[in-house]
Amino acid sequence: MYQVVPGGAGGTITDVIPKQKHTKDTRSLVGAGVIGLILVIAAVTAWCYYIASLRKAELLKTQLLDLNKDGYIIRNQGGSIVFKMDFRSGTLDLDSCSKEEEVLSCDRTTDRKLKFFIITVRPKDPVQCYRVRWEELVPDIPVEHAMTYEFGHWYGGAVTANQHWPISISGQQSPKPFVTNDIYSNRNEFGGILESYWLSSNATAIKINNSVPFHLGWNDTEKTMYFQARYNDSSFKPNPGEAPVAELSYRVCVGSDVTSIHKYMVRRYFNKPYKVPAVDMFRHPIWSTWALHKNDIDQQKLLMYAANISKYNFNCSHLELDDRYTRHYGDYEFDPIKFPNASAMFSKLESYRFLVSLWIHPFVNYESENFHTCVEKGFFVREPTGRLPALVRWWNGIGGILDFTNPEARDWFASQLRSLRTKYGVSSFKFDAGETNYLPWKFSTKTPIRDPSFFTRRYTEMAIPYNDRAELRSGYQSQNISCFFRPIDRDSVWGYELGLKSLIPTVLTISILGYQFILPDMIGGNGYLNHTSGIRALPDRELYIRWLELSAFMPSMQFSIPPWEYDNEVVEIAQKYTALHESIVAPRVLELASEVLHTGDPIVRPLWWIATSDETAYKIDSQFLIGDDLMVAPVLEPGKQERDIYLPAGHWRSYKGERFNIEKPLHLTDYPVDLDEIAYFVWVK
Question: Most buried among 56, 72, 401, 496, using CB within 10 Å?
Answer without folding.
Answer: 401
